[in-house]
Model the fold of this input.
Amino acid sequence: MINRRKSKVIEIGNVKIGGNNPISVQSMCNTDTRDVQKTLEQINRMAERGCELVRLAVLDKDAAESIKTLVKKSPVPLIADIHFDYKLAIQCINNGIHALRLNPGNIGKRENVEKVVSLAKQQNIPIRIGVNAGSLEKNLLDKDIPLSEKMVLSALGHIKILEDLDFDLIKVSLKSSDVLTTIEAYRSIADKIPYPLHLGVTEAGTLRSGLIKSSVGLGTLLAEGIGDTIRVSLTENPEEEVTAGFEILKSLGLRKRGVNFISCPTCGRTRINLIELAKRVEERFKNLDSQITIATMGCAVNGPGEARHADFGIAGGVGEGIIFRKGEIIAKVPEEQLLEKLEEIITKSYK
Done:
């Protein structure tokens, strides 16, 4: 059982973050926010995968204006990503955005910060302070301390600006492309602030390398009870980030959404194309919103026994395979019919 760090609860739309609330999974659109139709289509695809929060890049006034329509039509709460221009933050708040991602120290004069914070406070709009290792303030870069501590100092500085304005609807992230730096930064700040933490390894890479880095970084922190919402940053379609996020959480028993897929490694006993079959099983049932375990095993000798905890499973043979439920064999069919028969059995079980 993981003992989670206690943090303040904030609300982004209908999603509660922090405290004992479920660790939420979020992603970010890679569409042009000004293109409302394409952006909505992508938001909907992410929502179908289970995405609970979506961030949008707001680069100019036209993008900020699009927020009005996007908020009305989005199935999930939206977060505006703002850099440098406080007027865009104000425009997004006025257009109904659910939360902001900005660093108050980067949006100009104090009076500009006060305008944004005052409006955010009136509308109960949380602000995520997002510190990235690659864009620290110059005065911190010159300090002879570990990079993780520079990131923490940066976050604390931005937090103080908000706290001095009596604002505490705060969420914090400290991301680096280096996994250990990311882990050290979050560990360091975890007991220094009461606010919820947004976890991520930034610029993690493509699907394979990025998934490994994110799993190690986020998995380590989550196992220590650190983290209230996550984004798995991948150079890939954002829907894949959502799937990866839930898989990481499920592996630690922190979320139970959707199917838990298991499959055995290949070995000399395997007489079917196990790799291809396992991929097809995941693809066929990836959108099944049932908290069950489905196993794809290489042989009928060990398959049902090793995966007896699985709710349903298939195991290969020579030109045929078996389907089992909780370790009990319930059907034997030709190899080419395995997937269809498995789907038929599962569908009947959950009608």
Q: What stands out?
A: The first strand starts at residue 10 and ends at 12.
